[in-house]
Design goal:
This protein has about 230 residues and is α/β, with parallel strands linked by helices. The chain contains ten helices and eight strands. Helix 6 links the parallel strand 5 and strand 6.
Length: about 230
């Protein structure tokens, strides 16, 4: 599938993020592949996955556009933090390599532009730039990103955390950029998907509200025990 065709496949759709955290019962590549298959059967337009083995298993199981990343560390640049990890993600089977494009320093000293150029030239895959502010989105576009996502809004010192998704940032980026803008982060209800698309999102990533039963259970338990 060409990059243009892939982006058209994602247009107006829901990308399901199939990720589990270390130490959790579902932290298993085969399990994540089955979760991705279930998301496909529910009508997902694409899948977002973390970890090289997860990406490879999902690629072998699901014929949908696959956004891949690797998470390393617990602070600073965590999402695909080096040029080498970005190439690993592409070679593992991702159609789109997601990177942190906030401009914070990386462990290997690379820049988003360095990584985007290397992925384009060495693998031909697309790059999704995860950002937290409008300025970062503009910089990512200028660096050659094919997609800009609001993934990191609320998770960096320069972006206050909103209770729900940062739809104002979605709207700003959709207005100011000439590349697809993906809404991601704290999208927990169907009506938020509708609003994100109405405010210019090319597509919407939903993770926790679909694929994280521990958090979902906690929401219901909290409702059953108000004030406790």
């Amino acid at each position: 599938m060409t990059g243009t065709a892939l982006l058209e496949t994602l247009r107006g759709g829901v990308v399901v993020s199939c990720q589990a955290y270390p130490g959790e019962p579902m932290r298993d590549p085969d399990t994540m592949a089955r979760v991705a298959m279930a998301a496909r059967d529910g009508g997902a337009a694409g899948i977002r996955a973390q970890g090289l083995e997860d990406i490879a298993r999902i690629r072998a199981s699901v014929d949908l556009p696959l956004i891949g990343l690797v998470k390393k560390g617990s602070s600073g640049v965590v999402i695909t933090p080096t040029l080498a990890t970005a190439l690993d993600v592409a070679y593992a089977g991702a159609d789109v390599v997601a990177i942190d494009a906030t401009g914070r320093p990386r462990p290997d000293g690379s820049t988003p532009a360095d990584i985007i150029k290397a992925v384009h030239e060495e693998t031909g895959q697309l790059v999704m730039a995860d950002v937290s502010t409008r300025d970062e989105g503009l910089a990512a576009r200028d660096a050659g990103a094919d997609i800009v996502g609001t993934t990191l809004s609320g998770y960096t010192p320069s972006s206050p955390k909103t209770e729900g998704p940062d739809l104002d940032l979605v709207e700003q980026l959709a207005r100011d950029l000439d590349v697809p803008v993906v809404a991601e982060g704290r999208i927990h209800r169907p009506e938020q998907v509708t609003e994100a698309l109405s405010r210019g999102a090319h597509s919407v990533v939903v993770g926790t509200a679909i694929t994280h039963p521990t958090t979902l259970t906690g929401w219901f338990v909290a409702a059953a025990r108000p004030g406790r």
